[in-house]
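User: What would this chain look like folded?
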Amino acid sequence: MSANKLTPTRRPVPASLFGGRYTDAFLLDLEVVRAENPASHVRSLTVASSDLVGFEFSAGQDLVIGFPEGGRTLRRRYTIRRGDPTAGTVDLEFEIHRDGGVATRWAAKADIGSRLEAIGPRGVITLRPGTRPYLFVADDSAMPFAFAMLEALPPVAEATAILVSRYGPGSRPGPVSAADTRLVWVTDAEIAEAIEGLGPVRGTAAYVNGERHLVLHTVDLLIAAGVDPGDVTSKAYWRRDQPNEDRGEPSRV
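Assistant: Here's the prediction, encoded as structure tokens.
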């Protein structure tokens, strides 16, 4: 597929599909046009489609991608790391790890010409307007979200990202942000210390994303440190103790 010669198409999701949950999104037929590994545990894929020409999305939104598994389709959500509506392309990043799920197994083998069916854009978590300080706490699974948000900040913004990874700064290339951005790389055991070292946090807009237990624990730490609960936006991407449900979300039970 030649991404720069695509004629735009737009296919709204019919109300008869998926219980009418995705009527504000579009059906997307995607083809991989670039595949690389920016780190040993990261598979970066650029997908192209006429469905992505003129495709509008906000930083932090994602695609709901269908992966075949045992005669059925399992859906998983992946953040739009970056997109080019003119060329009709979107970049996605997949974590590659031992004992990975259906998406991990697919991404590890995906190459130029591989195809995906998806729905998007999805997600309601976007940047809050204003010039308040921003804080992002993300594990490896949520770094595409955090980096996309950081790159969308205006130059006048100040932001800190606490990045939880056993790989440290070698986890993946960092964001290219116009904002005054500070990256703090920590392990799970160092999150509390990193939050204590932030200084005054009242008025900070905080976003916490990643593994469910990490998210719950971090939100408690931030509120205890003085962040207003109404200024904390959080979302769990996965659970360490069980696979995500068929619709792509981790169980809350």
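The CA atoms of residues 192 and 221 lie 7 Å apart. If you want, I can go into more detail on any region.
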